[in-house]
Amino acid sequence: MALSEKTTLPPPRHIAIIMDGNGRWAKKKGLPRTAGHAAGAEAFRRIANYCRTLGVEYLTVYAFSTENWKRSQEEVAGIMKLLKNYLEEALRDMEKNRVRFRFFGDLSRLSPQLQKLCLDAEQRSHEYDVQVNFCLNYGGRDEIVRAAREFAREAAEGRRRPEELTEELFAGYLYSAQVPDPELIIRPSGEKRISNFLLWQSAYAEYVFMNVLWPDFAPEHLDEAIGEYHRRNRRFGGT
Q1: What is the CATH number that goes with domain 11-229?
Q2: Is-contact 105 135, C-beta < 8 A?
Q3: Which of 17, 139, 145, 208 lies most in the core, judged by the most C-beta atoms within 10 Å?
């Protein structure tokens, strides 16, 4: 996309990214998978900063899925260590960066130390404007089931009636309550799957699949995805 287009095409309000390809990036370079995740963490910093520069209000990233626990203990431990280091750094620089943190997913399976870092990041950043949502131990189906259980529990207690359930009400039980749905979802790495990511929220999102591994994802790739988003005809079921 030409440089001049950056000033004429505003970014979507909410962009979500499936950060895919760390392992393949490392394999191509003869490195351990943990090195790929470290490079992926740097790519996240790069793109998060660029999103703030562009004026993106919400950035949601798939950091660790409910299925990722199937990976080796070494790889999982490496990912958690990277997240811990990032959050510690973010807490130190919070006043300078002024980014609001939210975490989508079941944090109870994380270490107590990491749970506390997540809670501290949310509490200390709640007044900032730009928001980053980390999907951590997250699965779209799990999120929907949890929301349905919570509504059912309230109905059983007499606090809700089944007939009052609407899409808007149900959305309030999701991890993403009060966060607008993403308009653009990007998946690098060449894969073309949703992978259990934001199943409810992505109902009318534009998907852009890109043949670049996440550690190599650069601002120009985000520009390209935003340009593709603007070339789409978003009819929302109309004509």
Answers
A1: 3.40.1180.10
A2: yes
A3: 17
d(CA 42, CA 61): 13
> How many other CB atoms sit within 10 Å of the CB of residue 97?
16
- pLDDT tens sequence across 61-91: 999 999 999 999 999 999 999 999 999 999 9
Q: Domain residues of the chain, as ranges? A: 11-229
Quote the pLDDT of residue 2.
41
Encode pLDDT of 165-184 as tens digits: 999 999 999 999 999 999 99
Q: Where are the alpha helices (DSSP H) in the chain?
A: 5-8, 22-28, 33-54, 73-92, 94-97, 112-124, 140-156, 167-171, 219-231
Q: What is each CA distance from 115 to 103, 126, 131, 168, in whole angstroms?
A: 10, 17, 19, 29
Report how far residue 43's alpha carbon sits from residue 185's, in angstroms, rounded to the nearest whole number: 17
| Cβ burial 62-96 (10 Å sphere, 16+ → b, else e) | bbbbbebeeeeeebeebbbebbbebbeebeeebee
Catalytic residues: 20, 68
